[in-house]
Amino acid sequence: xxxxxTYSFCMKQVCAELQITGATCLxxxxxxxxxxxxxxxxxxxxxxxTCLRNFRNYELMYSFTGFTYGVTYGGMAYDNNGSIWVTxxxxxxxxxxxTGGTKTEYTGLGxxxxxVAFDGTNMWTANRNGSNVSKITPGGSVxxxxxxxxxxxxAFDGTNMWxxxxxxxxxxxxxxxxxWVMPASLPHSMAYHSGTxxxxxxxxxxxxxxxxxxxxxxxxxxxxxxxxxxxxxxxxGIASDGTYMWSTNFGDGGLARITxxxxxxxxxxxxxxxxxxxxxxxxxxxxxxxxTNECLHTVSKVCLNSGVPDNLINYRIPVGxxxxxxxxAFDGxxxxxGNNTSKSISVIGAV
Length: 351
Description:
The protein is mainly beta. Helices cover about 10% and strands about 45% of the residues. The protein folds into two domains: about 5-55, no CATH class; about 60-350, Methylamine Dehydrogenase, Chain H (7 Propeller), CATH 2.130.10.10.
């Protein structure tokens, strides 16, 4: 099997790490990656034969375009009924897009619509400039709840909806709202860890870190404590793999793994890109971590081996020179990458 020159050097490095010799290694690995021209391999962390062989190639299938405004950070969610929902920050609205590309816009939400989450029936948005969150029913009716100023992210714990801004707010199914004042911080994203029944929030302020919030509103802070050159690690997105919490670090181009039971943090710097390149949103789906890279205009697929990033493949999303890929969603089969500047959604699927 002929191995393209562009992959020869880095594939030989992978072979050396796997302690496989000769053409057999190159053939095995390249067959596993399926030889697509839009794939690059990062050998920062050692791969395993199993992980490499199990990688299926995911490529751009098609794009949804024609949005009035670009997709914002954390601004996409799947509704389990065949549609992706996209917040429109500037127009205080949300757009539902079916797999066939049909768009339906729901207006009347609070200004600055940003974060979005699904509760199994209804879609919810965090409306930063409206100081509220909005519930959109399957029939399209909208109900909003005040939650304190600047709510920027929203997440579901299986029963209640949560948001974060200057306050952490818990909204019950009956519409009751309880708020707790946040310490001085710059929250970006939030996600739920079911094992410890805690909500986790990224803090983009100062040295950067994470807030853990219990169901009763107890807030605990875990600092990244980063004082190196180039400023803070700047944690942005956060997601749970069922065991750990994973955060993207915009500042150093890497990932952070948080153990929910004790808040211990392990950082994998420059895993996704070089410093300042900008990994943003992250989700766990199909057994992998998926990360949007704002400045690289790509999506990264990260294989985990016993809770450690095992290897990395970047999938180039050819939707424009400056698309600013910042949001991500998963429908169980396909990855949806939201692009801010190009005002589009790239659909990535297995081939």
